[in-house]
Amino acid sequence: MHLAVVACGDRLxxxxxxxxxxxxxxxxxxxxHIFAEDSLxxxxxxxxxxWPSSHxxxxxxxxxxIAFSVGNAQEWKKLFKPCAAQRLFLPVRYPxxxx
Length: 99
Description:
By secondary structure, this protein is of the alpha/beta class. It has one domain. It contains six helices and three strands. Strands 1-2-3 form a three-stranded parallel sheet, with helices on one face. The radius of gyration is 14 Å and the shape is globular.
């Protein structure tokens, strides 16, 4: 099962709690797609590695940069804040994944 999440600003801890809840309440192996500001990437990597092995064996993760994937990035930036718009690009970034 794939789970995509966007984290910016001071949302690191909130996002980690959400991810841990998914691990604890899921019977399936999870794949986290974490879209985060560059400054948060090392923190995500460090904190996820610090989880107990009983948790870390139940998921894989990848941290992606915040990016406007379609068209003119400058135009998109005028319309949306970068973190708020990331979910709009998920179908483009993962065309082979089911909803």
